[in-house]
Design brief:
about 325 residues, Rhopdopsin 7-helix transmembrane proteins, about 75% helix
């Protein structure tokens, strides 16, 4: 509870949002409401499809399930408040709400970094060491890697919050953003934030940059190893790796831009945040379904099965009603 106590005289922050024009706000409200609903439903559809489909039992789809689940939750951290705030001229967020939002963003973001890294490792083993794939990527190992991702996200978010609670605020409480941004808090604080900014850049930006370069190296190794595969194997591997690498770039690009820099805000920060926190979770289910025939076929099969069950159920109800009516007629 002490972490949620406001520092000094600041009890809430005023968020300027994306626009102050009421007409523009109404347009953005409709756009982001559609994006939010599509993102949640699309990611949950992937989770349900993989969970119910016996053909999607490979470790790659196990990790994709957790990635989609993380994206579904991640978009719920920022987007709903943004949508609601677009209906009002003045939006605020409490100190406790600010800390909660920061914690969830870094918790889910940190977990997603690890999941994307694990998915790249899975592709590396599948393509470069196919004979040892089933031995290395056992079910227990996959589950352990996912647990590590969740724990890693919690530890990363906890470190960020411990940095934040020590900040003191003496006056202005206006944040030129649509969410509680860490660098905006550092700029508003009357504490000495120079060293803290370096620590944050190392903890978030440095980790993102390091992992991104490691992923680049891994995909370079994967591409070089494809020379020994047949044309059909190359096509399938390139399709799978291409989808995953696209998701990696969409995630790590904004992350590197946001955190590998001094404590300063830029006009482009809002646009980058929209892309990172709102659009990327929407793109991921599209990326992993458009080029993946197995997922698309599983979705069609699941939909066909549900429709068939619904039709059979409707027929059963109609037969039952018909029998009841016939019985009543005889009586």
């Amino acid at each position: 509870m002490e972490l949620l106590m406001p520092p000094n005289n600041v009890t809430e922050f005023v968020l300027l949002g994306l626009a102050q024009n009421p007409h523009v706000q109404k347009i953005l409200f409709v756009v982001f409401l559609f994006i939010f609903l599509f993102t949640v439903l699309a990611n949950l559809l992937i989770v349900i499809t993989i969970s119910l489909s016996p053909t999607l039992s490979a470790p790659m789809y196990f990790f994709l399930t957790h990635l989609s689940f993380l994206d579904a939750i991640f978009t719920c951290v920022t987007t709903p408040k943004l949508i609601i705030d677009l209906l009002y001229q003045r939006s605020t967020i409490s100190w406790g709400g600010c800390l909660t939002q920061l914690f969830m963003e870094h918790f889910l973001g940190g977990s997603e970094v690890i999941v994307l890294t694990v998915m790249a490792y899975d592709r590396y083993v599948a393509i470069c060491k196919p004979l040892h794939y089933t031995t290395i990527m056992q079910q227990g190992i996959c589950q352990l890697l996912v647990v590590v991702a969740w724990i890693g996200g919690i530890l990363h978010a906890t470190v960020q919050i411990l940095f934040t609670v020590d900040l003191t605020f003496c006056g202005p409480n206006v944040i030129d953003h649509f969410r509680c941004d860490f660098f905006s808090l550092l700029n508003l604080s009357c504490s000495n934030t120079y060293r803290l900014g370096i620590v944050v850049a190392t903890n978030s930006g440095g980790i993102c940059l390091l992992i991104f370069f490691l992923l680049l190296i891994s995909y370079t190794v994967i591409l070089s190893s494809l020379k020994s595969h047949g044309s059909e194997g190359q096509r399938k591997a390139l399709s799978t790796c291409g989808s995953h690498f696209t998701a990696v770039v969409l995630f790590f690009g904004p992350c590197i831009f946001t955190y590998t820099r001094p404590v300063v805000t830029y006009p482009a920060d809002k646009l980058v945040t929209v892309f990172f926190a709102i659009l990327t979770p929407m793109f991921n289910p599209i990326i992993y379904t458009v080029k993946n025939s197995e997922v698309k076929n599983a979705m069609r099969s699941l939909l066909k099965r549900r429709v068939t069950e619904a039709v059979r159920g409707a027929k059963t109800v109609m037969i039952y009603i018909h029998r009841e009516d016939y019985t009543c007629f005889k009586l």
